[in-house]
C-alpha cells in the first residue's frame, strides 16, 4: 500500500501554550488535525470554565488563515475546583475533560492534586455527568524510581480512585509501559488510554546512549525496549481503548539545551508521517485510522470527522523543518533518527 486515506485525525492530548508560542505552533497542528484536547497547564493554569473560554478565544484568534480546527478545552483540576463550575462548563459544551496532575509530576503541575480526598466531590460530579478525567499517571514520591512511577501510580492511585468512583470515565494519558497497556486492557470501556508518537519510536537508550539528547527527554520518560514494543502492539492493534494523544509539548531550544532542561517532545509537525511509518513497520497500516481518527471520538462521544487526510509513500524521504521558528524562539521538531517516506498530502 502506498497511499492511505483516513478520516481527518484528532490529537487527544496536545500542548498549545499561549501568546507567541501558541501562534507559532498552532499551524503545525491545524495542518493535519481537525480537533485536539488542549492541555490546561499554562502558567497560571486553566482552572475555571471562564478561564477555559478565554483561552479558547485566544486559540481561535491565533488560528492560521483558512484553518477549521476545533480546540476541545480541558480544566486543570485543583484541590479547590468547584464541581458546579465543572458541570456548567461541560453542559455548555465548552469543556470536554478535566485534567488530573499529581502535584509536581510534570511541567507546570505544581497546582495539581496532593490530597485526592479533596477532589472527591468533583470526581463524583464528573462520574454523574459522564465527563472524562484525563490522568497524568505518575507518582511523585521521591523514593520511587522515575522509571517505576507509572506502574506504582496505577496500583496505588489510579485503581483506588476508579474503585472509589464508580462510573468515572478515565483516560490514562500518554502511557509508557507494558503495565499501562495491561491495565487498560484489563478494564471496561470506561477506561481509555492515549499513546504518543514518540513513545512508539524511542526507548530510554535513545535519550542516554552516545550523549544526552535533550529533545528526547519528556515525561513520563521513555522506558525500556519491551515497554516500547508493548506500546506499539497496543497502538497498532485497532483496539478501541487506545488512541492518539501526541503530547506534543513545545519548549524553546534554550530551555531544552541547558543544565536543567524542560521535559517535552515536539511532534505536531511530523506525527502523521511517523505514525504511517510505524504502522507500516508493524504490518498494521489498516489500523491507523482506528488509532488516529476513530477510537478517540468514540471514547469522547463525538462524531468521527467527515473530512479526510491522505498519506502517501514516495521514493524520496519526507522533509520537515528541523526547527519551527516561533515568536517565542526556535522549537526543535522531534527527529525519529531514521528516514520516513510517508508524506501527508496537506
Ligand atoms: N510531558 N512535557 C509537558 C507535558 C507533558 O506530562 C505531560 O503531559 C509540557 O511541557 O507541558 C512533558 O514532557
Ligand atoms: Zn502528562
Ligand atoms: Zn502532556
UniProtKB/TrEMBL annotation:
One of the GO biological process terms: 'de novo' UMP biosynthetic process
Chain positions recorded as substrate binding sites: 15-17, 41, 136, 219, 251, 263
EC number(s) given by UniProt: 3.5.2.3
Listed pathway(s): Pyrimidine metabolism; UMP biosynthesis via de novo pathway; (S)-dihydroorotate from bicarbonate: step 3/3
Lineage, top ranks: Bacteria, Pseudomonadati, Pseudomonadota, Alphaproteobacteria, Rhodobacterales
Origin species: Rhodobacter viridis
Name the record gives this protein: Dihydroorotase
Binding site for Zn(2+) 1: 13, 15, 99, 247
UniProt domain Amidohydrolase-related: residue ranges: 11-325
Keyword presence, Kinase: no
Catalytic residues as annotated in Swiss-Prot or TrEMBL: 247
Cofactor note: Binds 2 Zn(2+) ions per subunit.
Sites where the protein binds Zn(2+) 2: 99, 136, 174
HAMAP family in the cross-refs: PyrC_classII
GO MF, one example: dihydroorotase activity
Reported cofactor(s): Zn(2+)
Amino acid at each position: 500500500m502506498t497511499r492511505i486515506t483516513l478520516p481527518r485525525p484528532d490529537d487527544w492530548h496536545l500542548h498549545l501554550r499561549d501568546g507567541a508560542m501558541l501562534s507559532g505552533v498552532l499551524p503545525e497542528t491545524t495542518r493535519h488535525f481537525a480537533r485536539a484536547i488542549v492541555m490546561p497547564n499554562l502558567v497560571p493554569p486553566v482552572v475555571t470554565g471562564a478561564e477555559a473560554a478565554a483561552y479558547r478565544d485566544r486559540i481561535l484568534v491565533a488560528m492560521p488563515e483558512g484553518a477549521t480546527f476545533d480546540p476541545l478545552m480541558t480544566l486543570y483540576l485543583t484541590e479547590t475546583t468547584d464541581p458546579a463550575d465543572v458541570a456548567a462548563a461541560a453542559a455548555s459544551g465548552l469543556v470536554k475533560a478535566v485534567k488530573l496532575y499529581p502535584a509536581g509530576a510534570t511541567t507546570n503541575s505544581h497546582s495539581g492534586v496532593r490530597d485526592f480526598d479533596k477532589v472527591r466531590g468533583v470526581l463524583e460530579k464528573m462520574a454523574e455527568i459522564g465527563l472524562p478525567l484525563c490522568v497524568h499517571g505518575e507518582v511523585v514520591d521521591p523514593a520511587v524510581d522515575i522509571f517505576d512511577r507509572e506502574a506504582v501510580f496505577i496500583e496505588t492511585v489510579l485503581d483506588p480512585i476508579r474503585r472509589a468512583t464508580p462510573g468515572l470515565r478515565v483516560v490514562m494519558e500518554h502511557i509508557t509501559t507494558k503495565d499501562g497497556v495491561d491495565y487498560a486492557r484489563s478494564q471496561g470501556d470506561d477506561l481509555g488510554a492515549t499513546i504518543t508518537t514518540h513513545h512508539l519510536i524511542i526507548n530510554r537508550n535513545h535519550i542516554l546512549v552516545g550523549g544526552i539528547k535533550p529533545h528526547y527527554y519528556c515525561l513520563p520518560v521513555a522506558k525500556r525496549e519491551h515497554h516500547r514494543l508493548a506500546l506499539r502492539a497496543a497502538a497498532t492493534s485497532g483496539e478501541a481503548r487506545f488512541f492518539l494523544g501526541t503530547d506534543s509539548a513545545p519548549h524553546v531550544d534554550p530551555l531544552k539545551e541547558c543544565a536543567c532542561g524542560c521535559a517535552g517532545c515536539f511532534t505536531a509537525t511530523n506525527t502523521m508521517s511517523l505514525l504511517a511509518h510505524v504502522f507500516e513497520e508493524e504490518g498494521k497500516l489498516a489500523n491507523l485510522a482506528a488509532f488516529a481518527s476513530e477510537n478517540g471520538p468514540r471514547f469522547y462521544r463525538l462524531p468521527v470527522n467527515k473530512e479526510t487526510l491522505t498519506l502517501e509513500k514516495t521514493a524520496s524521504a519526507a522533509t520537515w523543518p528541523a526547527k519551527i521558528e516561533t515568536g517565542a524562539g526556535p522549537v526543535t521538531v522531534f527527529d525519529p533518527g531514521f528516514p520516513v517516506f510517508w508524506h501527508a498530502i496537506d
